[in-house]
Amino acid sequence: MHPSTCLIVWLLLLVFIQGLEGVPLMVALLALPVLGRPALRHFGQLTWRARWLLLSLFVILAWGAAGDPVWDGPMAATREGLIDASTHVGRLLLVLMAVAVLRQRMSQADLLTGLHQLLEPLRRCRLDADRGLVRLLLVLRYLETMPRPRDWRRLLDLPASDGGEWIELADRHMRTRDYLAIALLVVGIVALFCFRQD
């Protein structure tokens, strides 16, 4: 598959995840181990880094929504709030897994190639896609090489980079199967949202 197709499918998958709730969401969460141990390891790291966000989201939604209290008392969460909180936290966990799979399955060169072709139409609006790609590359490198906050002294030992660096992007065109994969996923998302409205 073309790298741009992989990114489009990934973005559409994120939209699809936002339509999941109830049993389909639970099945998707239970099926995560199928994606493999390396993806699960990276997913665990992302989840650990987002633990306070997940906890805050759960508390705000569970105790902030109006509805029937789960137990008697002044600090009772509502049944509707717990359902809403579980749904949103489950969706966020699936998004984190999607990020883990994308980073594990796509090389950095493929990611930059796909983004370069997707951002190419922005040149007509006088936006420089190349600068955006270089900044993304620097952010990705920063996230991978940055020491932990408690190891800040290691930053003083890092050598200064004075040499230039080349970024090589492949120039490939999308094929019929790429367009077919995108069309099938769009149809699936539309069917999901139509099914939810009925």
Question: In summary, what is this structure?
Answer:
The chain has 198 residues and is mainly alpha-helical.
Can you describe what's shown?
This protein has 198 residues and is mostly helical. It is built from nine helices and no strands.
Topology:
Layout: H1 3-17, H2 23-30, H3 37-49, H4 51-64, H5 79-105, H6 108-119, H7 129-145, H8 154-157, H9 176-197
Helix pairs in contact: 1-5, 1-6, 1-9, 2-5, 3-5, 4-5, 6-7
- Based on CA inertia axes, which overall geometry fits? globular
Q: Can you give the mean pLDDT?
A: 78
Note poorly predicted spans.
none
What does the main sheet amount to?
none
Query: What percent of residues are in strands?
Result: under 5%
Order of helices and strands: HHHHHHHHH
The helix content, as a percent range, equals: 55-70%
Number of helices: 9
Radius of gyration in whole Å, from Cα? 21 Å
